[in-house]
């Protein structure tokens, strides 16, 4: 039986959506897509609009000063979570996608030249592929991808060859389909050795494990608030200060300038330079509350618990002979999720039948079409866990799969 | 759920009607849904402006394949002018699934109808309007 370093029942009681009165409460196994939110985060969001609502960085009146204070405090909380050297390295964006677009356009637009290589991997989410394609089309840079092996790990035998001519290695920390946790520190050393930068897509890692940007020695980290018990509409780009300082703006508008004439402008210092217009103030403050919530529990504790969930999920899926799951075997480099197929049944049918059993999973290509080409399936079903997931949720998944067999057997 | 996977759908999924291809054919139209990889190819033989023979092939979820199977039964003998009148409401009525609030699965159900319309309109030298299946 799983023994968590924290009380999962107490955690669950803090998530209103898991407490809804229902004959059959939902077994929510789609946290990799978007997580549920604890009362503390919902309250922080509502409290901002109830008690503190005013624009930031502008007013000389008290409400605006209070809003600014809380908005900037959230920036500091995020900096603490990822061990940034300075809170000014934290830029609020809409989500991971926008954070990657910011780097691709602002850094890529002024640093990439024809023939330069952007190295990705076969397991990337579309959000870490398409922004680079757009900037490659503009600059003449080319894309290259690290292949994956049959167990869903990066094939690094030829990494030195793959890194030739590379200016940017943009890679996911944890695959949103395979659950594979990639060796970021090692990849960073290799990238830096050839003079390349590394951007890490932390959408699936920052919510689930300790991520220390200084220990990893990376250059950019992108992640989303809504996958880490925070609200939608806010994400983060962390970047090394010296790199951010040298980058031109991404979006233009209010807040990101020092002076404006009709002909030209000078730009604000980082992070304001990259936060054009009124930001997502309440959402950022609520993300700060989410960070505090997670840090109070402890990222290492969450990772330890999810590691056990991961083992339990795979153990139970292995009891269903029709199931083929993807990704590496249970171990330190696998997160608590599993994408799978079932012989003779389409993923949409599986997900629909599971929904009828009160089990929420996702079916489709999970925004990873190149990965599904490598897996040689058009789509898959994905069950993903978080700190509020319990073994009962996973038991209900497996029970639901027996219904699928019943109907399609 | 029980509605979605009632016996008729599963029966058509397991034992599809008019499954295969026609060679020669007057219309052969393939449509696919990139979201889930569903694929339907619909072949028709047309005599005197009527659908004389029909066959479909493809792979995908039970809803897409069963809907195609049921639709092909309806098509035999259908006048091409009737194809224009045959729409989403008629198809959902035929397969008996309440998919109005389920846009993802609605696309599965409508895939064969899209193949029919695109194929027949092309045969007639016409084009499907983008909102015809919305």
Walk me through what this model shows.
The complex is a heterodimer of chains A (about 400) and B (about 130). Chain A is an alpha/beta fold and about 400 residues long. In chain A, about 40% of the residues lie in helices and about 15% in strands. Chain A contains 14 helices and 15 strands. In chain A, the strands form four sheets. Chain A has a seven-stranded mixed β-sheet, sandwiched between helices. In chain A, strands 11-12-15-14 form a four-stranded antiparallel β-sheet, with helices on one face. A two-stranded parallel ribbon of chain A has the order 1-13. In chain A, helix 4 (about 95-110) packs parallel to helix 5 (about 130-140) and helix 12 (about 345-355) packs across helix 14 (about 390-409). The model of chain A has no long low-confidence stretch (mean pLDDT about 95). In chain B, strand 1 and strand 2 (about 40-45) form a beta hairpin. In chain B, helix 1 crosses helix 2 and helix 2 runs parallel beside helix 5. The longest helix of chain B has 21 residues, at about 105-125. Chain B is globular and about 40 Å long. The interface between A and B is medium-sized, with 19 and 17 residues.
């Amino acid at each position: 039986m799983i023994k968590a370093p924290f009380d999962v029942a107490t955690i669950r009681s803090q998530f209103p959506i898991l407490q809804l009165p229902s004959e059959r409460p939902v077994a929510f196994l789609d946290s990799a897509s978007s997580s549920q939110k604890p009362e503390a985060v919902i309250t922080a969001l509502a409290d901002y609009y109830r008690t503190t609502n005013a624009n930031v960085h502008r007013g000389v009146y008290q409400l605006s000063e209070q809003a600014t204070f809380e908005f900037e405090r959230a920036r500091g909380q995020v900096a603490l979570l990822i061990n940034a050297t300075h809170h000014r390295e934290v830029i609020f964006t809409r989500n991971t996608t926008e954070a990657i677009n910011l780097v691709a356009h602002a850094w890529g637009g002024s640093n990439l030249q024809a023939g330069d290589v952007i190295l990705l991997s076969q397991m990337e989410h579309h959000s870490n592929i398409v922004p680079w394609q757009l900037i490659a089309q503009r600059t003449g840079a080319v894309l290259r991808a690290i292949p994956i092996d049959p167990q869903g790990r990066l094939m690094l035998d030829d990494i030195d060859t793959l890194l030739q001519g590379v200016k940017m290695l943009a890679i996911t920390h944890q695959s949103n389909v395979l659950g594979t946790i990639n060796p970021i520190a090692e990849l960073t050393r290799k990238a830096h050795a050839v003079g390349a930068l590394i951007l890490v897509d932390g959408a699936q890692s920052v919510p689930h494990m300790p991520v220390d940007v200084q220990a990893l020695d990376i250059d950019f980290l992108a992640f989303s608030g809504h996958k880490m018990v925070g609200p939608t509409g806010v994400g983060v780009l962390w970047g090394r200060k010296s790199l951010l300082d040298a980058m031109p703006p991404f979006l233009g508008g209010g807040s990101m300038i020092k002076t404006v004439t009709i002909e030209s402008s000078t730009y604000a210092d980082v992070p304001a330079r990259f936060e054009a217009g009124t930001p997502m103030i309440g959402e950022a403050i609520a993300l700060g509350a989410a960070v505090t919530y997670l840090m109070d529990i402890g990222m290492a504790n969450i990772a330890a618990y999810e590691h056990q969930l991961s083992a339990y999920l795979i153990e139970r899926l292995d009891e269903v002979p029709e199931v083929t799951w993807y990704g590496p075997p249970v171990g330190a480099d696998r997160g608590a999720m599993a994408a799978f197929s079932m012989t003779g049944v389409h993923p949409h049918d599986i997900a629909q039948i599971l929904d009828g059993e009160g089990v929420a999973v996702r079916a489709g290509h999970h925004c990873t079409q190149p990965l599904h080409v490598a897996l040689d399936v058009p789509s898959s079903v994905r069950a993903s866990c978080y700190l509020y997931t319990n073994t009962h949720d996973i038991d209900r998944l497996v029970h639901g799969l027996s219904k699928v067999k019943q109907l399609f057997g | 759920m029980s509605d979605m996977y009632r016996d008729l759908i599963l029966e058509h999924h397991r034992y599809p009607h008019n499954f295969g291809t026609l060679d020669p054919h007057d219309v052969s139209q393939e449509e696919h849904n990139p979201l889930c990889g569903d694929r339907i190819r619909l072949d028709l033989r047309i005599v005197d402006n009527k659908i004389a023979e029909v066959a479909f092939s493809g792979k995908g979820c039970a809803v897409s394949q069963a809907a195609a199977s049921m639709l092909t039964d309806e098509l035999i003998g259908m006048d091409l002018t009737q194809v224009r009148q045959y729409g989403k409401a008629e198809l959902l009525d035929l397969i008996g699934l309440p998919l109005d609030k389920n846009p993802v699965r609605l696309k599965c159900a409508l895939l064969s109808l899209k193949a029919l319309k695109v194929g027949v309109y092309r045969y007639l030298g016409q084009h499907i309007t983008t909102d015809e299946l919305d």
